[in-house]
Design brief:
Layout (H helix, E strand, L loop, with lengths): L3 H9 L16 H7 L3 H13 L4 H10 L15 H6 L9 H27 L6 H26 L2 E2 L7 H4 L4 E2 L1 H18 L14 H16 L15 H13 L9 H4 L10 E5 L20 H6 L15 H6 L5 H6 E7 L2 E8 L20 E5 H13 L7 H14 L10 H12 L5 H8 L2 H12 L19 H6 L11
Antiparallel strand pairs: 1-2, 3-6, 4-5
Helix pairs in contact: 1-3, 3-6, 3-7, 4-6, 6-7, 7-9, 7-10, 9-10, 10-11, 11-16, 16-17, 16-18, 18-19
């Protein structure tokens, strides 16, 4: 749980007012000159950028987890927004989850651009040179973070690296993915060099240089994924060795370690543990509310009611796929913690399963479903280790099959499973699936792996018992440009193929 003052500032800062996605209008010069008058103003501006991370976990659950073969999210309680995501419907350009991904990320980019602009113009007000450099590095990390999220979901997006007026924004087209990556890599390289390794307790949760390195490694790996002949996140590059180098730097730092208990990674009483490299931080009981909502996103309301708790907002069940359930061995201790296998409500048995990874029934907010106090881990040490194994299997120099086996078996033993040898890429992908289910990584893993067409096609054929899903097409690897963006200035953007 984050320091209270950090969150109050983050949501009440002058710069925290919403801005339109295309309407990248800078704060008026009068307001800017009034606001940026002392070092603390720049800190508030930095906090305002972090505040745009609040919905990041929900987005990954809605657009990555629900899109993947982890869930068969066909609703039996009315039409739900997630059904079009799960079923590969072509008419989702107006979907609220798709629109949120575009607008919130660009809002964060806008705020980062304003801070970077003001650091350049008024940075002399900050006499602490190290603080000024750190704020620049934080802003660049977050700008890269938001842009990477956009690239993975939409492919081409407009590059806006400075504050622009509304009219200027209306003339900025989408740029090729490779050009967006150029900005991302530049920002992350600066951040990885200039961010501190750690922070004092009051600033816990800010990006460190190892958070930047984790993001940098994942960018290298994502760029190295196949293109699928679409303008998506993969460029078919062979940057597995570059990624491995960065991952090894995180491991060699000694700042993080592998917890022996899987459940303790996600404990409400063990936040900021040794596994956590970067997370989205929440605090409860504050005004305005700055808690999380992601714990209940994949959880049906009737389950909370069956346990004597108030409804939270997850509505009807988004069932875990039979394929995922069958992937767990009987002895795998991760399954019971991650997945609720049925329950009874008002005397009626619900036999389907759902993801409950972030729910502790003793911690359910009593007054506000928007106020869960658990942090969402974006990058954790187990992920770094398994990404290292993936790079080695992809041919990165500096690793061996023995290294891969050791990493995977460390994860398996923690889960109560026997060791295996000669781990393949497909086995690693399956092990990642069981380890990170509910963390929003599955869709991105499938895309990066090059196996998404084969896996999703076979999965739909076996899983779609209600015949609700469209046949998988490679165009569905990315989402459509939100219809609101197309309508803002007709002709500025071209809709992604397949929608």
């Amino acid at each position: 749980m984050k320091n209270t003052a950090f969150y109050i500032v983050a949501l009440l800062a002058v710069l925290a007012s919403c801005t339109g996605d295309l309407n990248q209008v800078p704060i008026s010069s009068a307001t800017t000159s009034t606001f940026y008058s002392q070092p603390n103003d720049f800190l508030q501006a930095s906090n305002a950028i972090y505040s745009d991370l609040r919905g990041y976990p929900d987005r990954q659950l809605n657009l990555s987890e629900t899109r993947s073969d982890n869930l068969y999210a066909v609703s039996d309680g009315g039409v739900r927004d997630w059904e079009g995501i799960n079923s590969f419907q072509k008419s989702i350009a107006g979907n609220v989850y798709v629109s949120e991904a575009w607008s919130t990320n660009f809002n964060g980019i806008y705020r980062a651009n304003v801070l970077l602009d003001q650091l350049q113009k008024n940075g002399k007000l900050i006499t602490d040179v190290s603080l000024k450099t750190r704020l620049e590095a934080e802003a660049k990390f977050l700008r890269a973070f938001f842009y990477f999220d956009l690239v993975r979901f939409f492919g081409k997006v407009p590059i806006i690296d400075h504050p622009v007026t509304a009219n200027e924004a209306l003339s900025i087209p989408r740029s090729p993915v490779k050009d967006v990556y150029t900005l991302i890599l530049s920002d992350l390289t600066f951040a990885a060099t200039n961010l501190p390794e750690t922070y004092a307790a009051a600033d816990k949760g800010r990006a460190t240089r190892y958070a930047a390195k984790a993001a940098l490694a994942l960018v290298y790996m994502t760029r190295s994924g196949p293109t699928y002949d679409i303008e998506g996140p993969g460029l078919g590059l062979n940057e597995w060795s570059q990624a491995l180098t960065v991952l090894n730097e995180i491991i060699a730092s000694g700042k993080y370690s592998f917890l022996t208990s899987f459940t303790n990674i996600f404990s409400f009483t063990n936040e900021n543990n040794a596994e956590v490299i970067f997370d989205v931080q929440y605090a409860n009981g504050l005004t305005p509310v700055v808690g999380g909502t992601f714990p209940w996103v994949l959880v049906p309301d009737t389950w909370f009611q069956s346990n004597g708790k108030a409804t939270q907002g997850g509505l009807t069940i988004r069932p875990v796929s039979v394929d995922l359930l069958n992937a767990y061995a009987t002895a795998d201790t991760r399954k019971a913690f991650t997945i609720q296998s049925g329950y009874t409500y008002n005397g009626v048995a619900e036999t389907r399963s759902f993801v409950k990874k972030y729910v502790d029934l003793t911690k359910v907010p009593t007054n506000n479903r928007l106020d869960w106090p658990i942090n969402f881990i974006v990058y954790r040490y187990t992920d770094i280790l398994m990404l290292k194994a993936e790079c080695i299997l992809r041919g990165a120099t500096g690793g061996t099959q023995a290294d891969v086996d050791a990493i995977v078996n460390q994860v398996r033993v923690r889960a109560g499973l026997p060791a295996i040898t000669n781990v393949t890429l497909s086995q690693l992908l399956q092990e990642r699936r069981k380890e990170f289910v509910g963390e929003g990584s599955r869709w991105h893993d499938l895309v990066r792996s090059g196996q998404i067409e084969t896996i999703m096609t076979a999965w739909i054929a076996a899983e779609d018992t209600q015949k609700q899903m469209q046949p998988f097409q490679k165009n569905y690897i990315i989402y459509p440009v939100p219809q609101a963006e197309l309508d803002t200035k007709p002709g500025l953007y071209t809709q992604n193929a397949g929608y």
